[in-house]
Amino acid sequence: IKNFAYNQANFSDFKSSAHDADDPEKTVALTERLDEIVGKFFKGASKGSITLFSTLIVIWAALALLSTIERAFNNIWHVGKGRSFLHRMINYWAILTLGPLLIGAGIYISTKYVTFGRIQETVLSNIAPVLLSYVVATVAFFLLYFVLPNTKVQAKAAIGGAAVAALVWIAAKNLFGYYVTGWKPYSTVYGVMALVPITVLWIYITWLIVLFGLQLTFTTQHLKTLDAAEIAAAKETEGYFIANDLTAINIVREIAAAFEANNAPVSPEVICSKLDIPAEFSEKIFD
Prior knowledge:
It is built from twelve helices and two strands, in the order H-E-E-H-H-H-H-H-H-H-H-H-H-H. InterPro entries: Virul_fac_BrkB.
């Protein structure tokens, strides 16, 4: 699972100089640095140097990140009021715990299938990693789009947005990996420090893709409403109409004339045609 996560984040492609005097050309991968940092962290934890305060800081950072993401999601969905504190904590717990568990289960099942199915010598050995990466990304995006917004999100719309976002994210990940592996000067000039802006850039690209998928989810769910609003806006841009007291008097006069002539009741369409006024205005007057 660790190696799979490294590959998904392109960490395996990030390399820098090892600063070895005996071998100046020697490089070290970012994954090795991360393994070293994580190893020191758990070593310190086993010795009791990780305090309750530092643990609370990590939990607070994770919750604050999800809270910021939720506010951005609610803004796209035009939701003015957020969830209650308890409701938010339940959703955050589901994302932080159930999400990784589902992803890990998918990776485990896929790995067992490859092992026992003996498909590593077939064409599926090249297709399976790509499909697994796509499924995992789709599940992750779906959880974000379906759970975080404080409104009712249709599962069909969330799945559609997640599927497209996952496809774009995988394509961007591969292109970014080619860019990192082909751009060697950064490791020569900046060493390990060059990994910081590169990682931040990749996080920024990922965030743009997340928002793109969310916008697609919102558009899919409200497509009819958005179309109606666009048509109404197009009608308004064709011209404007200023109503006054004389307009209302003319409408009433047409109705009274039809009544005196014992004709059928005047419809809004007839009024619009005779007085050359917008249909929306005449309907409001009749109401």
